[in-house]
Amino acid sequence: MCGIVGYIGSKNAYSILIKGLHRLEYRGYDSAGIALINSQNNLNIYKAKGRVSDLEEFSQGKDISGTIGIAHTRWATHGEPSHINAHPHYSQSENLALIHNGIIENYAILKESLKQKGYIFQSETDTEVLVQLIEYIKTINNTDISTAVQLALKQVIGAYSIAVIEKENPDLIIAARKSSPLVVGIGENEFFLASDASPIIEYTNKVIYLDDEEIAVIHRNEPLRIVNLNNVEKTPQITQLELSLNELEKGGYSHFMLKEIFEQPRTLRDCMSGRVNVDSNNVVLSGIIDNKEKFINARRIIILACGTSWHAGLIGEYLFEEFCRIPVEVEYSSEFRYRHPVINPDDVIIAISQSGETADTLAAIELAKQAGAFVYGICNVVGSSIPRNTDSGSYTHVGPEIGVASTKAFTAQVAVLVMMALNIAREKKTISEEQFLSVLSELSKIPSKIETILQQNNYIEDLSKIFTYAHNFIYLGRGYSYPVAIEGALKLKEISYIHAEGYPAAEMKHGPIALIDNEMPVVVIATNSTTYDKTISNIQEIKARNGRILAIVNKSDYKVKEMADYTIEIPDTEECLSPLLSIVPLQLLSYHIAVKKGRDVDMPRNLAKSVTVE
Domain containing 61 — which CATH number? Predict the structure, then answer.
C-alpha cells in the first residue's frame, strides 16, 4: 500500500514521477501528490484526492519544471483521504518536503512536544509530524539535512520508508527505510527511487534494496552513499533486475487480473522449470536439499501468511501432513505475532507472501528467528524483505502481479508447497514411490489442464450474468477443496463487493444452512475426492431448501451434474492437485461478475496490493 517515487538527474522530473505513480497504482491508494524543485529553487507541492489522473489534471497550468522531485500515492491511515492529508507534506518553513509509507506509532507524543515548541500542523497525519521533527532537529542543531534525518529517525517508533528534499539543497534526496520497502535505481548520471522496481525498470536494471535503518544519500552527479542511523557507511549491493517492461503492461487484456488469470499456464511452467523433472522422476528445490535435515527432523511446521497466501498455506497443511507426516499449524501472521506463541528451535517456519513485504509476516518472522526456529520463505518478488530476512526459501517466479486480487501468485504458491512436500516426503521416505511418481506426473500436466479450463471463459462470462443480482454467496468444499472455497469467496468479495463466505461443507449444518433459500447462490467444489459422496449429501441438503447451486465438477462427473443448477467442468487430476484447477473457474467467475457490476477490478476500493502496515 502507498507508493513512493523519486528522481534526480538531468531529465524533467515531473513526467518520470507521474509515470512512476501510474506504475504503482496497483498498490492501492486514495490520493496522490508531487513535490518539485525548479531552477529558481522554488519547492512546489501539488496534491489531489483521488487518482493519479486527478493529480495530473490539478497540475495543469502550474509550474511543473525541475529535475529533482518526489511523488507519492497515499492509502489513508491517520486522517481521511483529502487534499490536506495527501503527501508530500511541507515543513513549517516550507523548506522541506517529505513523503512517507508506514506508520509512526509515537506520532502523538512527538506532535504534542512540537506544538509546545510553536509548531502548527495543517494535517491529521503522522507524516507531517516527522517532517516537522526533522526541521526542528536541523534548526536547533544547526546541522545538515542528512544528519537531521538520522537524529529524527532515532526518535521514531514504527515503520517507515521516506524521501525528503530541501529547497536550499536542490541536488539532494535523502531516503530511508524501516519495515517498509524502498529501492534505489542507478542510471547514467541519474538516480531513481521507488517502493518497488516497477517504476524503475523502464530506465535502468541496476538497483539497490535498502535494509532496515539504512539511509540513502542521493546526490546529483556523485556516487550513492548508504549509511545507517549511526552514520556508519555501508557498501551498496547492486542487484540486476530480471523484470521486463512488457510484464507491466496489459497486453491487450481488459484488466491486469484477467491477464494474470490467463498467464497461469505459463507462470506455473516457469515456477516448475528446473524443479520438476518427469524424465528423471525427480523434483528438486535447492532450498530443501540444502536444509533437508531441518525438515526431516522438524517437530512441526508452522505456516505464517495473510489473506490469499494464508489460503495457500492451508493447502500446504494438508500436503505436509499427508505426505510428510509432520504436524502443521497455519497461522495468520497478525495473530501469531501478538499471541505469545510457543516456538521451539526444532520447529520449521514457512512464511508465504506474494510481495515479500507484508508487515505482519515480517514481524512474525523476526519473532520466530528470535526463538531459534528455522525460517523458510515462499515469495514472488526477488530482493524483497522476506527473502532477505529468512534462512532459506523458494521464489515462485510468476513475474509482477499487478491486480490487487491475487490469482497467479496463489497457484504458484500452491505449486511450490506441492514440490516442497514431495521433496521432503521422499527424503523422509513417508511417500510410496508409486504415489510420488503419480503426483509428479500429474503436476507436470497441470499447466495444460488449466489451458483447457480457460477455454470456458466465454461460458463462465455468460454464467456470471445470472449472479450479478446476488448480495450474498456461500462457497463450500471439503478436504483440499475447503481452502479453495474460502479463496473463491475472498476473490468475489474483494472485487465485486458481494458478501461471500467459504465454509467446510460439513459445517454448513452448524449455522450457515439457516441462510439457504432460492435467493442464495451456493458454490460447491464437488470434484473427485475421498469425500465426494459426503459432498453429494451436502448438495442434497441445499436442494431440499431451494438453494441455487453452482458446482465445480470433474468432466467425468455425472451425479452432481444432475443435481446442480449450473456446473463448470475441470479435468481430472490427483486430489492433492485439484486446488490448482478448481480455483481457476472461481477466479474467472469473480472477475466477470465484478465487470458486469461495473467495479474497478484491478484496484478495488479500500484494498492495497502490498500491505506494509499493520
Answer: 3.60.20.10
Q: Where do runs of H (alpha helix) occur along 25-117?
A: 52-59, 107-116
CA dihedral in degrees (265, 266, 270, 275; nearest 10)? 30
The helix, strand and coil proportions of the chain, stated in percent and rounded to the nearest 5, come to 40, 25, 35
* pLDDT value for 243: 64
The helix/strand/coil state of 513 is helix
Tell me which residue range forms the domain holding 593: 456-599
Burial of 546 (0-12, 13-18, 19+ CB in 10 A): exposed
Q: Half-sphere exposure (CA, 13 Å, Cβ side) for 132?
A: 22
Is residue 294 flagged as an active site residue?
A: no
- Report the CATH number at residue 414: 3.40.50.10490
Q: Which residues contact 87 (CB under 8 A, 6 or more apart)?
A: 31, 33, 47, 72, 74, 98, 99, 100, 125, 127
Across the range 525-551, mean pLDDT stands at 85
Among 412, 431, 454, the domain boundary falls at: 454
pLDDT at 244: 60
Q: Please give the biggest Cα pair distance in the chain.
A: 81
**DSSP 8-class letter at 395:** E
CA angle 56, 57, 62 (to 5 degrees): 80
Residue 148 lies in a domain: no
Angstrom distances, CA of residue 417 to CA of 318, 350, 572: 10, 10, 20
For the cut 90, the answer to whether the pLDDT of residue 529 exceeds it is no
Cα 40 to chain centroid, rounded: 41
Q: Band the pLDDT of 44: cuts 50, 70, 90.
A: very high
- Count up the domains in the chain and report the number: 3
Tell me the CB-side half-sphere exposure of residue 363, using CA atoms within 13 A: 22
* pLDDT tens string 245-261: 566 677 788 998 999 99
Q: Are residues 340 and 409 in the same domain?
A: yes
From the candidates 2, 271, 324, 379, give the one annotated as an active-site residue: 2
Q: Are 324 and 210 in a shared domain?
A: no
For position 308, what pLDDT does the model report? 95
Question: Is 151 inside any structural domain?
Answer: no
β-pair type (31-37, 282-283): unpaired
Q: Which residues pair with 104 in a beta bridge?
A: 158
* Confidence label for 403 from pLDDT (cuts 50, 70 and 90): confident
- What is the distance between the alpha carbons of residues 147 and 144, in angstroms, rounded to a whole number? 6
Can you read off the three cell numbers belonging to residue 554?
470433474
Average pLDDT, the chain: 91
Query: Vertex 99, ends 98 and 100: CA angle to 5°?
Result: 125
∠241-245-250 over CA atoms, to 5°? 135
4: which 3 cell numbers?
513512493
Assess whether pLDDT exceeds 60 at residue 611: no
How far from each other are the two terminal CA atoms of the chain, in whole angstroms?
A: 11
Do 413 and 467 share a domain, yes or no?
no
Counting every residue, how long is the chain?
614
Residue 226 included in any domain: yes
If pLDDT is split at 50, 70 and 90, which confidence band does 580 have?
very high
Which is catalytic among the residues 111, 259, 294, 609? 609
Examine the domain organization and report whether 595 and 519 are in the same domain: yes
Instruction: Kindly report the pTM of this predicted structure.
Output: 0.79
Q: What is the mean pLDDT of residues 209-230?
A: 93
**Residue 576 known to be catalytic:** no
Give the residue among 211, 213, 212, 208 at the shortest CA–CA distance from 197.
208
Contacts of residue 583, defined as CB under 8 A and 6 or more positions apart, other chains included, come to 410, 411, 484, 487, 488
